[in-house]
Amino acid sequence: MARMKTNAYSEAFRKEAVRLANLPDRTATDVAKELGIHPGQIYNWRTQFSKLSKGQFKKVDGVDYSKEEAEEIRRLKKEVSKLKEERDFLKKATAYFAKEDK
Asked: What residue ranges carry the coiled-coil annotation (predicted)?
């Protein structure tokens, strides 16, 4: 079975669609009709924009949520976890050897 082709919309297009749909006198359905997209797409983008899920929107309020940033955060969290394990081991070893000296 052939897969349907999906359109790739730019980040600016998605942000503008969400902004228009959030205006008090507009609905997502009206904006979707104007832009020629399905209304559900605007709801999805709105959710993604608010949660920053799946990296759809890379910058919000000057904070970079790009893939590179996410990978760096993941790497640093892993390193922090490893350092905490080493610290805990050293605390236990220090307590053990302190007992033997007495």
From this structure: 66-93
Which residue, among 11, 20, 73, has the nearest Cα to 48 in the 3D structure? 11
Task: Enumerate the H helices of the chain as residue ranges.
Answer: 11-21, 28-35, 39-51, 67-101
pLDDT in tens, 42-98: 888 888 877 764 445 566 556 666 677 778 888 999 999 999 999 999 999 999 988
Question: Tokens for 78?
Answer: 């892993």
* Paired tokens of 70: 């996410």
What pTM did the predictor assign? 0.46
Looking at the structure, tell me whether residues 78 and 42 fall in a common domain: no
74 and 36 in a common domain: no
Comparison of pLDDT for 62 and 30, the residue scoring more: 30
Q: Could you tell me the residue range of the domain that residue 23 belongs to?
A: 10-57
Distance CA 51, CA 32 (A): 21
